[in-house]
Amino acid sequence: MGEIRFDDLEDVKRFIRDIFYGKDEERNDQDEPPRGGRPRKHIKGGLGGIIIILFLVFLGTGIYQVGPDEEAALLRFGKYVKTVGPGMHWYFPSPIGKRYVVKTTKVYRVEIGFETVEVGPPARYQNIPEESLMFTGDENMIDVDFSVQYKISSLKDYIFNVKDQYKTIKSASESALRQVVGSKGIEETLTVGKEGIQDETREKLKEILDSYGIGVTIIGIQLQDVGPPEEVMQSFKDVSNAREDRARFINEANGYRNDIIPNARGQASQMINRAEAYKQKRIKESQGDVAKFIKLTEKYSLGKEVTKTRMYLETMEKIMPNVEKIIVDPNLKGSLINFIGGGAGNNEKTNN
Questions:
Q1: I need a surface site. Which of 262, 270, 344, 351 has the fewest CB within 10 A?
Q2: Is 224 exposed, middle or buried (0-12, 13-18, 19+ CB in 10 A)?
Q3: How far is CA 320 from the centre of its chain?
Q4: Within its chain, how far is the Cα of 156 from the centroid?
Q5: Taking phi first (over 0 means left), then psi (-120 to 50 degrees means alpha), and beta for anything else, what does residue 185 get?
Q6: pLDDT tens-place string over residues 253-312
Q7: pLDDT for 59-94, tens place per residue?
Q8: In terms of Cα–Cα distance, which of 218, 225, 220, 235 is closest to 128?
């Protein structure tokens, strides 16, 4: 078969005419005059030309385009061949080849426990109790709605390793969250433990999906709504209010304690200081009394009778300062009585 060249439009027309009518028929048509004023046309290569055109059209269906945020997985006779990126490509058409074009930079979202009915605004959601109701570690039931965001990291694994990607990720997410919530108490789940639950669920879900080889990367897990079931909502509010009252009473008691204890400690410190001062005073007084007693003892040892009498007299003056005192000398004989002291100054001697 020789080289086919198309130098001008006439060459293209001639080529098409050769395919449908053949070269010999075209020469015969030029040599023989037409009968009845109409040219004769005999299709010799028409079937072959149609086949060629259909084949070219068939090959043309293999042209496809991959968007900037997409990738295409190519199969030949049902077997994976390769993955191509953005741009214009050609591949064997069906049934020889097959291609799956998927957005790989898009962040996909899986909803568990609820379903978005209308995006809005305002958005409307429908609760799915069979997905959202779960037990906590302290055997309380809780209603949890959450969502999972992920991206495709390996298109080949994403397409061929699992059958239903969305359902698989949703089931794995629900299972991971139930495991984590089942290890927590209801109070922790409803209050300060939400962030920790999200992190633990993400790690648990990553382990599950990696074991499946699903070819996705978890971007994040978000707890949308966490609360008790509607049937026990009022009772739960009563319990919550009681806990808040308890916390308030505890805070008030702590405030009262913080006010009373410092005052009591101050008073106790003041009393201790006073007692310490009184102790020191009594010690000094006792030491002074001891020193005084020692001196008296020394004087007493020098003149026991005189000292004894003087001490007796001084003691009597202290005990009875305003009482008339009569002192009788035991050595006196007869009826003479000596009066010494207040009230007897003018009667030094009295006869009976």
A1: 351
A2: middle
A3: 88
A4: 35
A5: beta
A6: 999 988 898 889 889 999 999 999 999 999 999 999 898 888 878 877 877 787 778 878
A7: 777 788 888 989 999 998 888 889 898 988 888 888
A8: 225
